[in-house]
């Protein structure tokens, strides 16, 4: 395997200006997103207080679409019965 000398990278003034503009743009987007999340969170908190309170398990089941159905005739107390 041939070994070559490391490539030299030069940082130019244009690159620095482009980096600064992109960084400022990302920071402004982040601020707007955070402000909208805070406003949405306050609205959601007001709605959640008015809604019925659900347990954590119920909230997760609703979110994933799981609706547990109790099994009829379950004999958990009978240890001698093996049904598969």
From TrEMBL:
Q: Which domain of life is it from?
A: Eukaryota
Recorded GO CC terms: anaphase-promoting complex
Sequence intervals crossing the membrane: none
Which residue stretches does the UniProt record annotate as biased composition, category Basic and acidic residues? 24-36
Q: Which residue intervals make up region (Disordered)?
A: 24-50
Give the record's GO biological process terms. Answer: anaphase-promoting complex-dependent catabolic process; cell division; protein K11-linked ubiquitination; regulation of mitotic cell cycle
Principal localization reads nucleus
The subcellular localization recorded is: Nucleus
Q: Which residues form a coiled coil?
A: none
Which InterPro entries does the UniProt entry name for this protein?
Answer: APC_suCDC26 (IPR018860)
Pathway-wise, it operates in:
Protein modification; protein ubiquitination
Q: What keywords were assigned to this record?
A: Cell cycle, Cell division, Coiled coil, Mitosis, Nucleus, Ubl conjugation pathway
* Record's compositionally biased regions (Low complexity): 38-50
Q: Which family does it belong to?
A: Belongs to the CDC26 family.
State what protein this is by name.
Answer: Anaphase-promoting complex subunit CDC26
């Amino acid at each position: 395997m041939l070994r070559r000398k490391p490539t030299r990278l030069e940082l130019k003034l244009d690159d620095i200006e482009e980096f600064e503009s992109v960084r400022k743009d990302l920071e402004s987007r982040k601020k707007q997103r955070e402000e909208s999340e805070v406003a949405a969170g306050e609205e959601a908190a007001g709605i959640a207080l008015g809604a019925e309170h659900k347990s954590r398990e119920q909230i997760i089941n609703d979110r994933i679409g799981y609706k547990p159905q109790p099994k009829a005739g379950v004999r958990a107390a009978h240890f001698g019965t093996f049904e598969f």
